[in-house]
Write a structure and sequence with these properties.
single chain, mainly beta, 3 helices, 21 strands, about 45% strand, DUF868 domain-containing protein, DUF868_pln
């Protein structure tokens, strides 16, 4: 895919100000309902004080009204030597398992998981709770990962206040799968100390009075790129600034236009922070995990299925 990119297609835009060639209405949709988020996968790297490191993958998924849950993988994803923990978080099922804890042995370390979804609140467009829940991961008695914002269990709070060591953790990548129309809305934090930013991706078409499809991307409601004649510019990349960081933005919507009409092809959008003056922008997808382990840049990948 990298062979299709032109070095002359790169531009630098600032998310804090719009380019003169992009109107302020680039990302305003006549239909404000975004596509449905089917799954969210976040990859973390945990650094213990004992110098041991672990890759932790947390996947929120929602396939039907009764199949919604969280899967945590310890070790590299799809590795035969990894271990996993699964929990159905649907409010109508398994009410007794909405709160609890579990021990798992992996790679000569003890993993302890605490969770409470009894008061979890969800949005209508995604599988991940937005409030009222927590998931805590202890690794060898060190606090390795915290998901959620509400810790209501007094026993857990007492344990955390009793001198528990805090392991260092870093979010390396986030993958999101969408299905529905061509409007995609999400949030992303491009550095551990940065703010969360609203990201809106939209493809406008002939049904809106345009001569050809146009791709627009906004960060915090400010347009950063606008790609005209998308059926001919179906692959490309540009560079934007967010929080003082260089972010490489890539799009590949080939399958939207040229895939078998009987199937629903995926478009791919990728945001990746760039380190220093690194010149090589893109990697083959199968090498992404290896690079993530080496440099800890952040990557946001959005897989978008356009359904009829």
């Amino acid at each position: 895919m990298a062979s299709c990119f032109s070095e002359y297609a790169i531009q630098v835009s600032d998310a804090s100000c719009s380019s003169h060639s992009i109107t302020n209405h680039s990302c305003i949709s006549p239909n404000p309902i975004p596509s449905i988020q089917n799954s969210i996968t976040s990859l973390y790297k945990i650094f213990l004080s004992t110098k041991k490191n672990f890759l932790i993958t947390a996947t929120w998924s929602k396939n039907t009204t009764t199949n919604q849950g969280l899967t945590i993988n310890f070790g590299e994803e799809n590795n035969n030597h990894s271990s996993s923990f699964k929990l159905n978080t649907n409010s109508k099922l398994l009410r007794k398992k909405k709160k609890g804890h579990k021990y798992i042995e992996f790679d000569n370390s003890k993993f302890e998981i605490f969770w409470d979804f009894s008061a979890a609140k969800y949005s209508t467009n995604g599988p991940e709770p937005i409030d009222g829940y927590y998931v805590l991961l202890m690794i060898d008695s060190e606090l390795g990962l915290v998901l959620g914002t509400t810790i209501s269990d007094e026993a857990v709070m007492k344990r955390l206040k009793s001198g528990t060591k805090l392991a260092k953790s870093s979010l390396i990548s986030r993958r999101e799968h969408f299905s529905g129309n061509t409007l995609y809305s999400t949030k992303a934090r491009f550095s551990d100390s940065g703010d969360a930013h609203d990201i809106l991706i939209r493809c406008s078409g002939e049904n809106e009075g345009l001569k050809s499809p146009v791709l627009s991307v906004c960060v915090d409601k400010k347009p950063v790129i606008r790609v005209k004649r998308l059926q001919w510019n179906f692959r490309g990349n540009q560079t934007i600034f967010v929080d003082g960081l260089l972010i490489d933005l890539m799009w590949d919507v080939h399958d939207w236009f040229f895939n078998n009409p009987a199937s629903s092809g995926f478009a791919v959008f990728m945001f990746r922070t760039r380190r220093g003056m690194e010149s090589r922008l893109w990697l083959l997808e199968e090498k992404l995990v290896q690079k993530e382990q080496e440099k800890l840049e952040f990557s946001l990948l959005i897989y978008a299925c356009k359904t009829p």
